[in-house]
Amino acid sequence: MKMGRVIGSVVATRKDPSLEGVKFLVVEQLALDMEPEGGYVIAVDAVGAGLNDTVLFAGGSSARQTDVTRDRPVDAVIMAIIDSFDAYGKTTRLT
């Protein structure tokens, strides 16, 4: 799993039929200091994330383990919206 911030969305009117009804979001990868690490991923949203939400996302075969993505041709999924996290003795609250 990686941490990221939702920075946008993708609209695709023509896509594989198995992807009908899923929401695609652009996720910028973040470091623990909440600064961008460089890079982004297009991920299927399994939890109702929105613009500027800080999220956990997974890629590869793990991305096909949620109810929303099972048996669909996806390589990244958002599976949590982060409220807070602890690292190096510091708590970061996001909500």
Protein model, in words:
The chain is mostly beta strands and 95 residues long. It has one domain: OB fold (Dihydrolipoamide Acetyltransferase, E2P), CATH 2.40.50.220. Helix content is 0%, strand content 48%. It is built from no helices and 7 strands. It has strands at 2-10, 24-30, 36-45, 54-59, 76-81, 84-87, 90-93. Strands 1-2-3-5-4 form a 5-stranded mixed beta barrel. Strand 2 (24-30) and strand 3 form a beta hairpin. It is elongated and about 45 Å long. The two termini are 20 Å apart.
CATH fold annotation: OB fold (Dihydrolipoamide Acetyltransferase, E2P)
Percentage of β-strand residues: over 45%
Q: How many strands, what sense, and barrel or not for the largest sheet?
A: 5 strands, mixed, barrel
Measured between the Cα atoms of the first and last residue, the distance is 20 Å
By CATH reckoning, the class would read Mainly Beta
Low-confidence stretches: none
Q: Order of strands across the widest beta sheet?
A: 1-2-3-5-4
- The CATH homologous superfamily name equals EutN/Ccml
**Gross CATH architecture:** Beta Barrel
Whole-number average pLDDT?
95
